[in-house]
Design a protein that fits this description.
With 239 residues, the chain is mainly alpha-helical. The chain folds into two domains: 81 residues, Winged helix-like DNA-binding domain superfamily/Winged helix DNA-binding domain (Arc Repressor Mutant, subunit A), CATH 1.10.10; 141 residues, Four Helix Bundle (Hemerythrin (Met), subunit A) (Up-down Bundle), CATH 1.20.120. Helix content is 72%, strand content 3%. The protein has nine helices and three strands. A three-stranded antiparallel sheet has the order 1-3-2. Strand 2 and strand 3 form a beta hairpin. Helix 1 packs across helix 3, helix 4 runs antiparallel to helix 9 and helix 5 runs antiparallel to helix 8. The radius of gyration is 20 Å and the shape is globular.
Length: 239
């Protein structure tokens, strides 16, 4: 009985460690996407250990995982740094996002039911409210704005029937979102109108119109971000 109890405690300890590691992975990933860990910033393990209150070995596992996602760059003996940003990379990410979202959107429109429509309307309502906040000049809730933006675009494709497709789209969208946070690329009324048009096209099951709007929406976001000039020169290293 004692051996069984010890084994059970060991399993619980392992599960707790996995939960803590996953939580810290999500925190660091989120901090990279939302710019709290800036492009080009050196990720010193001692500093991260204090900030995220986890072990160096766990941090190495997390950073290697993020390296495989393209959000972190491993520099051999020199450690890790947050992946830098570039114009070419933004254009490539945007093109991939458009390809995935157009395909998933078409499938979702064909298979979506009343529950999907309710999910979509709800997601758009939250996004529209947050866009109104951004339009007022209050950028303090930019993370909430982009979270609701993500939720709306995920809702658009939620009925596509493929979890893998949605997960892949989500990962690409996060990379696209990181560029928007670097440039704080809010396009105001233009983007709001495009979101309303996407909702209308979805409820009418007009995938041809929706894909045309989506293309303008994504390309417009890219050009707006580039117009700010924040990606035209190397990112300075964070101290």
């Amino acid at each position: 009985m004692r051996k069984s109890k010890i084994s059970e405690e060991a399993v619980q300890t392992d599960l707790l460690a996995e939960t803590v590691a996953e939580s810290n992975y999500q925190r660091i990933r989120r901090d990279i996407i939302f710019g709290r860990l800036a492009p080009g910033q050196k990720l010193k393990l001692d500093n991260l250990k204090a900030t995220y209150e986890t072990s160096v070995s766990t941090l190495r596992e997390i950073l290697n995982r993020l390296t495989s996602e393209g959000l972190v760059v491993a520099e051999g003996q020199r450690g890790f740094e947050v992946a830098r940003v570039s114009i070419a990379d933004l254009r490539e990410i945007a093109a991939l996002r458009l390809l995935l979202e157009e395909h998933a959107l078409e499938q979702s429109f064909e298979q979506g039911d009343l529950e999907w429509e309710a999910l979509l309307v709800s997601a758009h309502h939250k996004l529209a409210r947050m866009e109104a906040v951004m339009a007022s000049g209050d950028t303090g809730q930019a993370e909430d704005w982009k979270r609701y933006d993500w939720e709306f675009h995920q809702a658009l494709i939620a009925a596509c029937g493929s979890r893998l497709l949605m997960e892949t789209h989500s990962a690409v969208f996060d990379k696209y979102l990181r560029y928007q946070m670097v440039a704080l690329s809010y396009r105001g009324g233009v983007a709001e109108q495009e979101h309303r048009q996407l909702l209308d096209a979805a409820l009418k099951r007009d995938s041809t119109k929706a894909k045309d709007i989506l293309k303008r929406h994504i390309q417009g976001g890219v050009e707006h971000a580039l117009g700010k000039g924040l990606l035209s020169s190397p990112v300075k290293q964070a101290k």
